[in-house]
Amino acid sequence: MDLDDPTPPATPSPQEIKTALYARCACFPADTIFSQDDLLDLGIIPKNDLNNLLQCTKKLTQEGLFKLLSREGRAVWRVVKKEDAQKYKTLSADEALVYSLIESASREGIWSRILRSKSGLHMTIMTRCLKALEGKSYIKQIKTVKFPQRKTYMLAGLQPSEDVTGGPFYTDGVLDDEFVHQMAKWAERYIVGRSWYQRSPSDPRYQHQAAKTSSTHHQPAAKQKLEAKRNFALERSSSISNKHKELLPFPPGYMGYPTIPEITKAINGSGLSAVVMKEVEMKQLLDILVWDGRVEKNRLTGGYKAVKQAALAVLSGKARTDEEGGGVDETEGRIEGESALTEAPCGKCPVLGFCEEEGPVNARTCEYFAEWLEI
Question: Mean pLDDT throughout 337-351?
Fold first, then answer.
């Protein structure tokens, strides 16, 4: 081309402007909304002529490539894919109206009663339109968790939102009890592992305790009798501990109680399920464990700690839920003869009958308290 040629460039035709405008808008994300100023800022319309712009948007809307919307009383447009626009050409006016209303509901879906109210169509006509759209696989009927009896419709190519399906805990609108149980069980076991120190009978503390009671032949007969009773209680406790590891609390200020992000990351990395859990969903599981008295939340650290009796049940493999998947039987997994009272020395003292003020065994000189307070 001759650079000295003063002939101005040819003005693009309306068809070329319309095609260029649509191509430029199609480059943006599918849910982008364009105002009049947004379209002018694209630099497609010659001299930003408003009349030219209105002619292009009108033509694109008629062809189904633009969808006219209203935002705060102003006209805006959204781009429609060419394949979606092609669908409208195969629909009748009533079917196109019903389809557009379902399309606007996006992933939330729309109830048939609301659909009828917005469309203003007779029930018979709307039913015929829905059947025709379903027959062409343009729409589908879904079941919502909140209102399972309602007929709700959405576009066939969309996946319902979690508000509609209930998230990973629901399958086809029905609560998956087994999935909830398995995920909660795994989370509880993970919390137990970071809530208590497990001491086995081979721990040096046990051996030290046994050594203290092995030299009774150098003691007076009365004290030997007391020690014999004490040894019997220790042997019984040792036999129980062989079946159940002793759980000891961590010291004050312990910061290792797992938080929701940590538990969520751990369960997603465990391979337990192909479903990727979110933190908000994990909180729902943990709330169930809290309500059932299985774990408690540490308000200082935000972490979760397993309740001791529930932890014993988990470690013994006897934790279970009732037939309806409700509360947990907290009596199972509990060490025989153990209760909240017996965790204190007086509750399981083998010589409690001899304990009295100024007696051979008394609260002032009690060695069991010293051993108990060592932890």
Answer: 60
